[in-house]
Every structure is written in structure tokens, then in C-alpha cells.
Design brief:
By secondary structure, the chain is an alpha/beta fold. It has helices at 6-9, 13-24, 44-52, 65-74, 109-118, 137-148, 167-174, 195-203, 208-211, 216-233, and strands spanning 34-38, 57-62, 79-82, 94-100, 125-131, 180-192, 242-254.
Length: 255
């Protein structure tokens, strides 16, 4: 898959920053020594961590060069590391691993979650937020569009992210390795100006496995077909706006 676009992702920065803010509010730490923002993206979540823990060392980690470029522009005095969460291991002294909308893209992410939690010292915290929206219309229609057009054969190679596990499975996986575990869902209803704005939103995230395999002309046609399906599924509300329902799963585990 081609590199993520920081510019596209930040078109909805306010909406995308609400979940990490809600996750951070539940982190039971005061002055962690080292905080690592896993999948830091363009640095919006890293900025929240710096504001919450001004005396701590805060490091951002991402596998996308474009995301890291934007993060370094945003926070030039901070350290950012290019690495893959799947095989990365935290340094000694890491008290908080914070992952906002990143681990759902990691292959076999439950195993990675358990490994990262076990790498923390006693009292360390793993705080995770993952979109749990694969069965929502906007996501379901992506696969439907991929399977039904002239691009279907090419897009057989696309690897969209898998469904999350149910909360009970994460509990049973993580509880033996921690002293405290909180798991909850939040459902956001983002106010979008038009159905086309929903397409733009996912153009910066879950559409990438499909679009990255298409040439520019095919991408345009794919987005037109997908956009028509989205417009049929998301009807205008009383003021003309549309609501994008977006469930997310939150986990805060204390070692």
C-alpha cells in the first residue's frame, strides 16, 4: 500500500482528534517518564500528550514518511521515529504506550497488544483506541464497490482491515497481564456537510487499500461509484447535513 497522506488525513483534524482526547482523559498517570505515541500520524495526538505531560519525554512513532514529515513540521523540538509497530519494542523506562486509530491496521494486532503490554513496567499503561466501524454502511460499501466494478480483479489483492474482536476477547487476552483493565465503546455522530465529505473522510483512511492499487483514472471512477452509494445510504438531516455514525473501541490497561 502506498504511503498515507497527512494532508488528506488532516482535512478532518478536529473530528479525528476527539477520540484521542477522550482516551487520554482516562489514562491514570501523572508524570510518566517516557510516553510513546504509536502511529502518531501528523502529530495531532502527540500534541495532546505533550500538553497533558509537559515534564515527560514524548516520542512519536509511525511507519509513514509523509505523516512523520508533517509531525516534525508541527512539533520540531520533539523526537519522531520511523518504525513498524508490528515488530517494535519499547525502550526501558516507557510508562505509557498510546495508540490512537493505529493498531487496527497491524497484522495480528491482538498478539501485538499483548506483547506491548507485557513489555511495560509495573504501573505502566497501554491506552488504545481503534475504529470499530467495519459493518457501518460507509465501510461495507467500500468492499461492495471494489467487488462490483471493472476493477474487481485488481482489487482482489486489496487487504482491508479486519473486524475487531468483541470486547470479551480483548478482556480475556489482556487481563492476565495487567492489574486494571477498562474497555468501552463510544459512538460518534460526526456532522458532515454532504455525503461527498464522507468519501473525503475515508479517502484519508480505509479507502487507501483499494485506491492504492488503481491508476488515477480508475480511482476517479471508483470514487464516483462509491460516492453514489454513500449518497444513497446517508440521507440529509433537517439542516441539509448528514451524520456519519462512527463506533470506536477503547482500551486502557495498567500493567
Amino acid at each position: 500500500m502506498e504511503d498515507w497522506s497527512a494532508r488528506q488525513y488532516l482535512k478532518f483534524e478536529d473530528e479525528r482528534t476527539r477520540p484521542p482526547r477522550d482516551l487520554l482523559a482516562q489514562v491514570p498517570l501523572q508524570n510518566p517518564r517516557l510516553v510513546v505515541d504509536l502511529g502518531c500520524g501528523p502529530g495531532n495526538s502527540t500534541e495532546l500528550l505533550i500538553a497533558r505531560f509537559p515534564k515527560s519525554e514524548v516520542v512519536g512513532l509511525d511507519s509513514s514518511p509523509d505523516m512523520l514529515r508533517k509531525a516534525r513540521e508541527r512539533l520540531p523540538q520533539r523526537k519522531f521515529v520511523e518504525a513498524d509497530i508490528a515488530d517494535w519494542t519499547p525502550d526501558a523506562g516507557t510508562d505509557l504506550l498510546f495508540a490512537n486509530a493505529a493498531l487496527q491496521w497491524v497484522p495480528d494486532h491482538p498478539r501485538v497488544l499483548r506483547r506491548l503490554l507485557e513489555a511495560l513496567p509495573v504501573g505502566g499503561v497501554l491506552a488504545v483506541q481503534m475504529p470499530d466501524n467495519t459493518h457501518e454502511p460507509a465501510n461495507r460499501l467500500q468492499r461492495e464497490t471494489a467487488d462490483s466494478g471493472p476493477w474487481a480483479k485488481v482489487l482482489q489483492e486489496a487487504v482491508p482491515r479486519a473486524d475487531l474482536l468483541p470486547p470479551e476477547a480483548y478482556y480475556d487476552l489482556l487481563k492476565p497481564a495487567c492489574t486494571r483493565l477498562d474497555i468501552w465503546h463510544s459512538i460518534y455522530n460526526h456532522v458532515m456537510a454532504t455525503p461527498a465529505a464522507i468519501v473525503e473522510w475515508f479517502n484519508g483512511s480505509s479507502l487507501q487499500p483499494y485506491l492504492s492499487l488503481l491508476d488515477p483514472a480508475a480511482r476517479e471512477k471508483f470514487l464516483a461509484v462509491y460516492g453514489a452509494k454513500v449518497a444513497a445510504a446517508y440521507k440529509p438531516r433537517i439542516d441539509g447535513n448528514v451524520l456519519l455514525k462512527f463506533p470506536r473501541l477503547f482500551i486502557v490497561a495498567v500493567r
